[in-house]
Each structure stands twice: as structure tokens, then as C-alpha cells.
Description:
Elements: E1 7-8, E2 16-19, E3 26-29, H1 35-52, E4 58-59, E5 67-74, H2 79-85, H3 92-97, E6 102-111, E7 114-122, H4 125-138, E8 158-160, E9 164-167, E10 174-179, H5 186-194, H6 204-216, E11 221-223, H7 239-245, E12 249-250, H8 262-265, H9 268-271, H10 280-294, E13 301-302, H11 319-339, E14 350-352, H12 357-363, E15 373-377, E16 399-404, H13 422-434, E17 440-446, H14 452-463, H15 465-469, H16 473-485, H17 490-506, H18 536-557, H19 563-595, H20 601-628, E18 660-664, E19 677-679, E20 683-684, E21 691-697, E22 703-709, E23 713-715, E24 719-722, E25 725-732, E26 742-750, E27 753-762, E28 785-787, E29 792-796, E30 802-804, E31 809-814, E32 822-827, H21 839-842, E33 845-852, E34 856-863, E35 876-881, E36 887-890, H22 900-908, E37 911-918, E38 923-930, E39 937-944
Parallel strand pairs: 3-4, 3-5, 5-7, 10-11, 10-17, 11-12, 13-14, 14-15, 15-16, 16-17, 19-27, 20-27, 28-33
Antiparallel strand pairs: 1-8, 2-8, 6-7, 6-9, 18-21, 21-25, 22-24, 22-26, 23-25, 26-27, 29-39, 30-33, 31-32, 32-39, 33-38, 34-37, 34-39, 35-36, 35-38
Helix pairs in contact: 1-4, 6-7, 10-11, 13-14, 16-17, 17-18, 17-19, 18-19, 19-20
Amino acid sequence: MNVDTMITDSPADGDVPIVSRDAIADLYVDGDDHEVATVAATDLGDDIERVTGHRPAVTGSLAELSGTAVIVGTIGRSEGVDRCLESSDVDVATLADERESFAVGTVDEPLPGLESCVLIAGSDRRGTAYGAYELSKRIGVSPWYWWADVPTPDRDALYVTEGLERMGPPSVRYRGVFINDEDFGFREWAQETHDPATPDGIGPKTYERLFELLLRLRANTIWPAMHEGTTAFYRCEGNREVAERYAIVVGTSHCEPMHRNNVDEWDPETDGEWNYATNAERIREYWTDRVDEVADSENIFTVGMRGIHDSGMPGGDTLEERVDLLQRVIDVQREILEEHHESPVEAVPQIFCPYKETLELYRNGLEVPEDVCVVWPDDNFGYLRRLPTGEERARSGGHGVYYHLSYWGRPHDHQWLCSIPPALIREELHRAYRHGVDTLWMANVGDLKPAEKEAEYFFKLAWDVEGVAERSTSDWLAEWAARKFGPAHADDIADVLAEYYRLALARKPEHVGWNAVYPNTEKNEPTFSAVRDGDEARRRLEAYERIDEAASEIGEALPEESRTAYFHLVEYPIRCARAMNEGALEAMRSRLYAGQGRTSAATYAERSRAALERIDAATTRYNNSSDGKWRGMMSASPRELPVFDQPATGRVTDEQGPTLEIAVEGTPSVAGTGPRIRRVPTIVQGVDRRRFVDCYNRGTGTIEWTATTDDWIDLERTSGTFEEDERLWVGVDWDVAPDSRTTGRIRIAGAGRELEVAVPIRPRERPTTDEDHDEFEPGVERAPVFVESNGRVAIEADHPTAVQQAKTRWEPVDGLSRTTGTAMASRPVNGLRIDADAVCERAARLEYDFEADADEVRVEVQLLPTHAPTESTPHRYAVAIDSAAPTVVDFDANGGEHDPQWQRNVLRSSVHSTTDHELDRSGRHTLSLYAVDPSVVVDRAVVYTDGDDRRSYLGPRETRDRRLE
């Protein structure tokens, strides 16, 4: 994978040297250009030195240039750039008319005495900066060289290959981050480690580093940190000036109107009540003072009003009164902006964010002026609650999105290990863009450091939505890894990260306590099953173990200088996610095993404790890395929530000699109860995997055991010894097994006891081509076939028997499934909505052939918890079996943060939607899922033939006949 196109150390004719054996090109930037041009050009010089060890001289004099040079500047502000463009093939007029655009490349004989140059020409001040940092990236300097200690390559020479590349304008006008929930990370690190000279706030030294990063990522906007204990951005001396120097647009969050940080700046003792209904004069004066102070800077003003800190707006007893009050607030704020700007208020950038309670006011008649950008929030878990209607899209102010990569609040925080899949970011933000949301994209990144990958992808998408969205996120992850750590391990790194996101999509590491916040509740029993579906909990931990070990092996193979960055960006989140799951699930197992009387319960309790200790060790390593540069940045227990505490564990205290007992898959038996003969779930030929039988000790000492079986039962071991547990995997030798349903026996003897395990089986003939199925073209082999097993037919959505596209279409999407990694999404993202009576004719359908013996079935479709674009719009799929009329289902649960169904959906990243159906025959059937509305994402489906009691977290493993693969 070539990640540094444009740069070579083996030059051809026409290539221009920056650093060669013979010379180092000077770097020119005009002294009359924007200040950020000098900043970016100087950083480019620093980057060239990082890579080559040679620093170019920086000059503002064209007369000093000879041989070759790097010329950086803004069209119309740089004499050198303007003169060079005359000798280039760039359409200068077109480039100059575009915002934040640039051209980078080579020009022959651009000026008298100059043989050639590398030209970086920006259409405006940020375009110039983006161009300079683009060249930095091409020579190998990562945007995260400082923030994640990503190393730079060593090169003896740098040549820019002949030609010019033009980039821009960006898809989204304002693209930025919100530093938020900084209490236990960003602020502590800034004040105690990075900039102790600013003990009461986050100062210009910290923001300067942040703003450089934003420019390197081609972002342009900041919502500054604003929690209690953080000095307001404008009250910290130097912050405003550094924003201007780096050409960063300053805005404020949804609860900070008119550039005021109310948490820090509003004092109830001297200012009175924060209530516009009772204290309008003081509040207006408060807003006016700030607007007057910052009116000559490049800003985005938040209009509207909420409580002091992410709470409801005070004032108004009824909904109508609150709407009227907020309308007065906005009208007054507009008057203030008009009074203190030379341009009309319609030209002053403004946003209104209908977040939480303000959305209700917006729905009920609040009139937001046409020129104000309406910024739509997601539901705090990455799913957009609302998008503009066709009528709303006509607003001159446009629309934006406020998107959470980090969140503090109901039903539970996710602030520690960022795990929003890039595929979800793409799915939701591409949909938003197609609905006209292209004025502002703001990412809540929390402390920034846990969200490096996700933030970079967010900005990559914001710059070129359509170009990035058409590629899989797996490809992007591989490219990202190659840029950070070289191409040799890029695909392997992408694979472990993809699995990390898949596992977290099923349940985030912060949510493995099965509890909630506001109020904080005690931890509950995890619902990953330790006894069903092949030991679902163990399979999850084994998946984490595989990627943790793979990530460690990759890290050991990397050069020493890459290991800190790799640990921060890859190893730490994977290792800690594994440990959090191990801490919760091994504690759960210890409690289960204690109830079964297993001596080994204490072993699993210790595994739980050891896992949480590994988190502490990894966090210490993180904070001490780079000679303590990151001390205080990473907290392994944000807000000290109960989920981070050691879970309760179990142990057996009765002392007795070695005592053999057995537990089998599917049965959570309790000590001293249950039948003498245990029974594993039926094994269906071609479909089911091996079942497990646990032999365990209820006492102390060694148990020597033997097993005898029917000759067709495949038992991996038939004798051995153990002190605590011995798990045996039971399969079937189908070549010698009976050809009809039967039940075999395993007899296990040890420690003076003999116990039996029943092994029921259901043989099946190998599926063949179906030439007689009335609904489908004769002669077409319809495979795979899904088969009922133990009352369940489990289907992964990305394994359809057939796909019938229509006016809508189904498309596989990597990274959006909790089980396989690939889900099926209805397209286009802003496509047709099919009328219920036209589903069969106009909607695409996924078809899954399955076999079942039942008169009635319940179909559960598991979908990503995406939302309809508006409150009045349904969010639908349709389902049918065989030739029955489709049942159209609206599955949206968008009832707000207090809605229990929505809370369940976002914590498990899944909606479980059910419908009941009658079957007219036993045997083979076809399940059809129809794409009725756009952006419906189907993960999997389960057909229940004997009730839908859920026995495991993700549901049964797929029951596809694997002999057809």
C-alpha cells in the first residue's frame, strides 16, 4: 500500500527536490499573507527537518530564492504564489473562488532565477494551511505526530513528483470538535502536565497544539471545553489570540448561548437567577458584553437558551409559555448581534441546536430565523434522531449535526474507550449529508485522546463525503494503519480493529455492568450466556483474547519508535476492552459456578480481579509513556461509576473430598438439583457445532475419569484427570450414525460416581438443487438453506439465499453487524419510501430459504437502532413467509433519553422486532425481508418455532446448512 504518493526519493525528470544530496530548497511565505500561512509554512519546515534532519531556510524575499524552492501562500495575498500561478496550469480564477481549497505540486521556471518550485497555493487562509499540512502528510508526518507520538520516517532525500494536485472545497463548511467532559482527562493533563503555568484553565499552550491538529485534519472549528472547573475560553488570556492565529472558528455548545460559558461565567450570587423570564435585563447585558468583545473575530454564535449546564431552560410554566419565552430570547439575541456587527445579522454565522427539551419547543412552533443553521443532534450513541424535512432544507442557514463519539449521560456514559464504529459514522453522516446537512458537523470527542481514529475518520468524511463513503471502512482502517505504522502490518491492524468495533457494537466496554446512570444503579447480571449457544460468554472472551494477542504480536514486531503510538491507538483500547469484559463475565461465571457447587468458582473470581488489575497496569503505562508526557490524560474509571468497580464474585466454601458432577450445554443447573442424566441440545446434521459437557469437581483433590460412548459419538477425550474442571466437546460421526432421529449416551465415571449425558441427534440428507420450487426459476440452486434446530432458525442477514432488487435495493455493509461484521442496509440512504400496498412490486427483498416443522412461527428481526428522518415519518421494513402478503413493521423507538425501549436498544445496538406468521405446510419455506424505507440496517433474523424466550444475548448461532458452503 503506497501511502506517500507525490513524494519520491528516486527522482525522474520533472520532479522537484525539497531535500537532496546537493541542496535544501528554501521555503518562501509572504510576510503580508495571513498569519496562519506563516504558522503552517513554519510547521512544514519543522516537518521537513523531522523527516530528513535538514531544515529549510524560511524567507519572505523572492530575491533570495534560487535553484528550487517551496512557495506557500494565499492567492491574492502572496506575491510569490501569484507570480508562480502565472506559470502553472492551475485555473486560478476557479480555485480562488472556492473556499478552503488548495493546489500542491510542481511548477517549472516559475520565476527568474528559479529552476522549479513546489507550489502550495490556497484559495483562502485555511486553504493555504491545509495545503502546507497536506505536503507534510505526504512526506510522512502524521497529523497525530504530537498527539499520539506517531513517529516520522527517516529519509535522505525528498522529491515532489511532477504535476499538480488540487483539493477542495470541503463537503461540509464548518467541521470541528467539542472538547467535553474534560474533568478527569484533558483538563487534568493540561493543568498538571502539559501547561502547569495555567492552573485554573485550559490555556493557549494547549489550544495551540489542538488547533494545529485540527488544521492537519482539515478541520476548522472548536467548541471549547466548558465543564465546572474549566476557566471559560475567553477568560483565559491568550486563547482568543491563538484561535485567530490558527484561523480556527470559535463556537460554543448547545447550552452556551452567545459565546458565554455559563458554568464558569454566570454567578447567581451577583448576577441573579438564570431565568430570562425574571432576569432579562442582566442576561441581555451579560450576552452583550461578550458579543462586543468578540465581534471582530471569526465566530459561530449559538442562539437560544438552556439551563446553566445541559439542563432545561428555566421559565415558563406551560409548553406554550416556554415556546414564547425562547422566541423572545432568540429575537433579543439577534438584536444584540445586529448592533455589534458591521454586517447584517443574516450574515453573522449562527446555530440553533434542538437538543433534548429544545427539540420539543422547536416542534411546537418555535420560529428559528431562516439564516440560522439548525444543528441536529444524534441520540448520544451515534444514531441521528432527526434530519431536516424537504421544506426545512430550503433554509438559507442550512443544517448541521452534533455527533457524539463520547457521551456522559443516560442510560450510561461511554467516555473511556471510544468504540463508535467508523461504519456507523459513515452510515449516519452520509445519510445526513444526503438530506442536506452540510453546513456544520461537530464531533463531541470528550478528552480527544481516546477518540483519535474515530475523529480522524469523521473529518475525512466531512472533507469528502461521497468519495469516502463509497469505500469500505475496512479499506480506510488499513490505509490509516499503513500511514501510522507502515504497510507491512496494515491489514492485520485493520482486522483486529474491525473485530474490536464489532465486539463493542454488541456491547460497549463501559456497558458490561448492565446498569444505568441518573440515578446510578447497581450492576446487574450480564446476559451473555455461559451455558447456551456454545458458551456465548466464553466465545466472546475468546474473540477478545484473539485480537488482544494478535495486537500484542504486531506491537512486538514494530520498531521501538512506533510502539508508544501503537499502544495508545490500538493496544490500549483492545486490551482494556478485553479486560472489562473478562472482569464482568468471569465474575458472572464465578457466581454461576458457585451455585453449581464448583470448586473452580474461586478461579474465575480471581480471573475477574486479575483482569481489572491489568486495566490499571495498562493505564499506568499509557500515562507514563513518552517520559510522562501524558500523565493525567487517561482515566480508567471516568466518574468512578459502578461499572468500573470489582464485580461481586462467588466461591464454594464447603470442604469435601473429590466429587464428580456434570453440567451440559443449555442447562444452568444448581448444585444438588436436576436429573441424573443430563441432556445436551439436539445436534442437527450439517448445521450444529459440537456441544459441550463440563465435568467438574465439587470438592478438593484430583479426579481421574473415564468415558464410554456409542460408537457414533465423537468425544474429543475419553479419559483424563482434573482438579477443578474438564470441558469435553461432543460431536457426531455422521458416516456411522443412525439415519433417523435417535439419542445416544455418554457415561462418565470418576471419584466413585457414574453419570450419563444424553446426546440427541437429527440426521438430514445433503441439500440438493431445488428445481420444482414454484416461486423461483427452475434449475436455480437456492443455497444456503437455514434449518430449524432446537426450535430456532437463525439467519445472518448477509447470507441471503437470493436478493431481488427493485426501486429500492439491499446492500451489504461491513462493520455494522454484531455477529458477522456485515449487515444489509436499504439503499439509497435518502431513497424512496415505498407505500405499504406497493411493497411486493417496488421494494427490494432479501430471501432466505429455511426448513421448519411448525404451524405458527414468530420472526424476530434484529436491526440497527437507526431512526426515521423526522418525527412524522415511519421507519419500516416488511416481512413475509412464502406467498403471504408482507407485514409492514415500523420499528423506530425514538422516545427520548427516558424511553426504556430506546435505552435497551442503544445499549445493545439492536432493535428486536417481532411478527407472527402461520405456515401452511412443514418443510421448506422462504422468509422475505423488504426494503420499505431507506437506511434500514438488518443484522440478523431468528424464526422461532416454539416460543421466543431469549436464551442468550445475541441469540442462537446461525443454523445454516454449512455443507452448502
